[in-house]
Amino acid sequence: MTRWLLLLLLLLSCACAASSQPTHRFTIPLTDSELLFDVAQSQRDGVNFRSVSVRCTGRCDDFVAYAGETLDHLLSVQFESDNRELMLVTWVTGSAYRAQVFSVSGRGLKQELEIGSRAPPLMVNLAGEVLVLSFDVPQAGCLRAMKWNGKGFAEAEFAAFGPYRACPQVEE
After folding, report:
1. pTM, whole model, 2 decimals?
2. CA nearest 130: which of 115, 108, 152, 162?
């Protein structure tokens, strides 16, 4: 898996550096299928944006698993483990980062979480517990941890993680 992540990051860094190439495509293999990413740059009314589509091929019968437009720049795609059930997609939004977490299945991608962060967000798998960590939300020096429960994400409770303290709970 590390080999694939390194290859993906290399491809993304090359794709982002090559402004003469308007469309970026890459493939992520899954157990019985593949996710084909297509990020096309366009301009409308003087504004640059990216159209993103993810097509699932193989056992998932070749369908569009995700499609959307964004002003942000794709930074990375990460899976929580080799079984690839959760995928973290990180976008650069200017002075911050936007993270989307998708559950991956033969039926496609389902967005489970969208969260902002002042530093690149992380997805970690600690003994089977998947956490998404975002930084500086809503104030400097704090860490927000969202825990996957198999059906969705919920705020994880903790006091501190290294030099970071837990962010105050945000009521929605």
Report:
1. 0.73
2. 152
SS3 state of residue 3: helix
pLDDT value for 18:
36
For residues 154 and 48, give the distance between their C-alpha atoms in angstroms, rounded to a whole number: 34
Q: How many CB atoms lie within 10 A of CB 135?
A: 20
- Whether the CB-CB separation of 86 and 62 falls below 8 Å is answered with no
Model pLDDT, residue 10: 42
What the block records as the tokens of 106 is 């033969």
Between 58 and 118, the more confident residue is 118
How is 71-95 classified by DSSP, letter by letter? SSEEEEEEESSTT--EEEEEEE-SS
Tens of pLDDT, residues 91-149: 898 889 999 998 887 667 888 999 988 888 988 888 788 888 888 655 566 788 889 99
Query: Using CA atoms in the order 1, 51, 14, 135, what is the torsion angle rounded to 10 degrees?
Result: -60
What span, in angstroms and rounded, lies between the C-alpha atoms of 23 and 142? 37
